[in-house]
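FW: tagging you since you asked about this chain on Friday. Here's the raw sequence from the shared folder, copied in full. Didn't touch anything.
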Amino acid sequence: MKTLFPLLTLIVLLSSCCKKNAEYLSVDGFAQGSTYHITYSIPDNINNPDSLKKIVQENIVLYFDQINKAVSGYDTTSILSRINRGENPKLNKIFLDVFNYAQQIYGESNGAVDASAAPLFDIWGFGFKNKVPVTQEKIDSIKQFVGMEKVHISTDSTLVKSDPRITLNFNAIAQGYTADYFARQFDGMGIENYLLEIGGEIYCKGVNAKGREWRVGIDAPRDGNFIPGEEIQAVIELSGRGLVTSGNYRKFYVSEEGQKYSHTIDPETGRPVQHTLLSATVIAENATIADGYATYFMVVGLEKAKQILAATPNMEALLIYGEQENMKSYETPGLKKMIVGSAR
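HL: got it, structure written out here
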């Protein structure tokens, strides 16, 4: 949900399936301030394919609305917005799922991915509010009420804050969670082959219309590369996993002094990160985890990301780093085997 969430991913679908095959259908649209592309096959055992098509089309709108009403920071009626205003609404399953993932990734990242750092994103202009003049004094004052250990879920399914000034922002995982949420619904309808791309976050399962794993292009993280698919760094094949890219080349601002500020904020310093890592593409068991770890790597930088990957089984990554005019890449061994094409 990154339109909802300002962090834009860098993945563009290279559609290996085509509409000539009647068994496979594609649905494209605009939601959550971004685009989505969904491709799926009609199961062989469906007696009424037209009925399933209609159900899928109608439910897409429903699923987006369910996500928005739970964790959108831009929908003023959402559970998240009400919590951030100081209200105490009852939490539904979607909110609880996203919150629990946020707590998990907060712990695994040693606080580098922190949903309670929302006020820091706000003052830099990458959150739900307009940018304000940033001083070290302001950062220090905000950091007093930042930290996911300061919030928990009560036995009656409400959010308890240790400080009323705490606000939350699920930018780092919410759109990945959206892809996973759609996947669970498709599974429930008996759909076995699908690719879900929502704002760049991807979860896919089964095979495409050619009977092969799904093919996805990863954009080169070049400043000014605002059109997904225009400049591809690599093409990979995958299935049964989530894939997310995080980077700083599409979302940043330049100060009056000419300083470029990344939209990735380090909660420890309260400031935009400054390192050579330009983008991180992560493949994990689901898109929520991939989303969180892509952000994690963008916070800690290249060398730390490589150390984390070496110690994390069942996770692959493509890390692009260096200067714009001299980009380099690091691929995990597993990801190297998945590459089927490259612009290099």
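FW: The longest strand covers residues 24-31.
HL: agreed, and The CA atoms of residues 8 and 137 lie 29 Å apart.
FW: great, closing this out.
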